[in-house]
Amino acid sequence: MHAVNQKNIQIPVNGISLPGILTLVSNPKGIIIFSHGSGSSRLSPRNTFVANELNNNGFATLLFDLLTVEEDAIYENRFNIDLLTDRLVIITRWIQHQEETSKLPIGYFGASTGAASALKATALLGTDIRAVVSRGGRPDLVLDAELNNVRSPVLLIIGSLDHTVINLNQKAFHAINGIKKIEIIPGANHLFEAPGKLKEVTKHATYWFTDYVPKE
């Protein structure tokens, strides 16, 4: 168990301020930045569960709101992947310039549409992002040309009952050129609501981040 220091923060982004929850641990292996899906927030119980498990396994985490309350009220913004990607890139750069996180290698954990913005941001930021994990993600919202530019190791986790998303992930999988893997969780739906299924997600995510995020 790693000692945990959690704090609420405000992140400046192009004249606005986005709330976040930054959790630091002792001797961190890296920091995992969460990119949540449409209609969700930094308070997402599923992402919070995953973040807590990552904290217990030695990773710092950042959960934050990609949109302000006013922006989120406009439905189209929730699916504006370019806007969400810009926000994620800016916040990643902000993390890289904070004294307590500036030296930490970075991974992304993206859920649903948030996985699309995580992959687009990774294509832009290159090796600054050490690894990406997608939970029930929508990589089909990213152009193949952008997926071609993703060089960081990518793990796509999907529930076996989420048939449409499985097909979308399998198509996008072939466009990713780097290290990649698809993990299908038996008996899980899109939200991994069945008992124990989200725990399986955290297990695979932890293994992936442990293998690829820490610098040698």
From TrEMBL:
Single GO MF descriptor: hydrolase activity
Occurrences of domain Dienelactone hydrolase (ranges): 28-198
Pfam families according to UniProt: DLH (PF01738)
InterPro entries hit by this protein: AB_hydrolase_fold, Dienelactn_hydro
Gene3D superfamilies, per the entry: alpha/beta hydrolase
Protein name per its UniProtKB record: Dienelactone hydrolase domain-containing protein
